[in-house]
Amino acid sequence: MDNAAWTISSRLIAGIVLYAGLGWLISQWWGNRPALIAIGAFIGLGLSYYLIFTGLAREDAVRQGRSAQHRTQGNVGTDGKDQA
Fold first, then answer.
1. Does residue 27 register a pLDDT over 70?
2. Please, are residues 55 and 12 in contact by the beta-carbon 8 Å criterion?
3. What number of other Cβ atoms are within 10 A of residue 36's Cβ?
4. Is 83 a member of any domain?
5. Which of 27, 35, 62, 75 has the maximal Cβ count within 10 Å?
6. Residue 54: inside a domain
7. Residue 84 placed within a domain
8. Nearest of 21, 16, 9 to residue 43 by alpha carbon
9. Are 36 and 26 in contact (CB under 8 A)?
């Protein structure tokens, strides 16, 4: 990830704010239950962590695929012939 710190922190903040906001809306609809805001924030935090870890795992898989591809190609020149 190019800007991993910004991506991770924005996903955390957005998840917490979004789901806490949904908890607030539901609490207004059901009669002002503050626990729903906290529950929404925890759900948002959990989903944000899930998105962060799956994104990092996907990025790691891409990097490992590139390194494995470079190892199998060996020393190939620009004309496609082996340089060894």
1. yes
2. no
3. 19
4. no
5. 27
6. yes
7. no
8. 16
9. yes
pLDDT tens-digit profile of 64-82? Answer: 887 766 666 655 555 555 5
Residue bearing the bigger pLDDT, 33 or 51: 51
Q: Residue 6, class by beta-carbon neighbours within 10 Å (0-12 exposed, 13-18 middle, 19+ buried)? A: exposed
- How many distinct structural domains can be found in the chain? 1
CA distances from 60 to 6, 50, 52, 64, 69 (A): 18, 15, 12, 6, 14
Structure tokens at 46: 């959990």
The proportion of the chain whose per-residue pLDDT surpasses 90, expressed as a percent, equals: 35
Query: CA-CA distance, 75 to 84, in Å (whole number)?
Result: 6
CA atoms within 13 A on the CB side of 71: 6
Q: pTM for the whole thing?
A: 0.66
> Would you say residue 36 lies in a domain?
yes
Structural domain boundaries enclosing 58: 32-69
> Residue 76: helix, strand or coil by DSSP?
strand
